[in-house]
């Protein structure tokens, strides 16, 4: 029962995000801002491709955490990610990667002042097996 509620909650968040995006596109079209509507659609396509990279990354727990982090947190820290290359890592690294990411985020949440928005940005690249992180004030 609890798992079903969690799935429904995830679907609610996803549907809410999609409806917001569609309303922004519709509003721009109604205002004859066709170029802006096209740009928003292009951004949605890029975001969907990035989500596809993440969900096929091989670490489902980490992927779920990354996709849903900003939905459940109201503090000043936001998390983003970008795949520069198609990648896949063995699933047995999932718990290690998830624990490490949660620890990084928790440390930054405690250290970041509430008055300024902050972003932790994960960049995934194949070069030399590195995972790049970028932390900045927004």
Through-space gap between termini: 39 Å
Low-confidence spans: pLDDT under 50, at least 5 residues?
none
What is the overall silhouette?
Answer: globular
Give the neighbour order of strands across the main sheet: 1-2-3
Order of helices and strands: HHHEHEE
Q: Percent helix among the residues?
A: 55-70%
Q: What is the tally of beta strands?
A: 3
User: Count of helical segments?
Assistant: 4
Class from secondary-structure proportions: alpha+beta
Question: What proportion of the residues form beta strands (DSSP E)?
Answer: 15-25%
Main beta sheet strand tally, sense and closure: 3 strands, mixed
Mean pLDDT: 87
Rg over CA atoms, rounded to whole Å, is 17 Å
Summarize the structure.
It is built from 4 helices and 3 strands. It is α+β, with helices and mostly antiparallel strands.
Walk me through this protein's architecture.
- By secondary structure, this protein is of the alpha+beta class.
- Helix content is about 60%, strand content about 15%.
- The protein has a 3-stranded mixed β-sheet.
- Helix 4 (about 95-110) links the parallel strand 1 and strand 2.
- Helix 1 packs antiparallel against helix 2 and helix 3 packs parallel to helix 4 (about 95-110).
- The radius of gyration is 17 Å and the shape is globular.
- The mean pLDDT is about 85.
């Amino acid at each position: 029962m609890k798992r079903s509620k969690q799935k429904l909650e995830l679907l609610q968040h996803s549907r809410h995000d999609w409806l917001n995006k569609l309303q922004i596109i519709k509003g721009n079209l109604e205002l004859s801002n066709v170029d802006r509507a096209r740009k928003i659609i292009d951004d949605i396509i890029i975001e969907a491709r990035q989500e596809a990279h993440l969900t096929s990354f091989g670490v489902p727990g980490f992927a779920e955490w990354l996709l849903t982090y900003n939905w459940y947190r109201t503090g000043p820290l936001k998390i983003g990610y970008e795949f520069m290359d198609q990648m896949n890592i063995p699933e047995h690294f999932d718990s290690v990667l998830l624990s490490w990411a949660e620890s990084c985020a928790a440390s930054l949440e405690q250290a970041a002042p509430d008055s300024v928005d902050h972003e932790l940005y994960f960049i995934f690249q194949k070069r030399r097996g590195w995972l790049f992180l970028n932390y900045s004030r927004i």
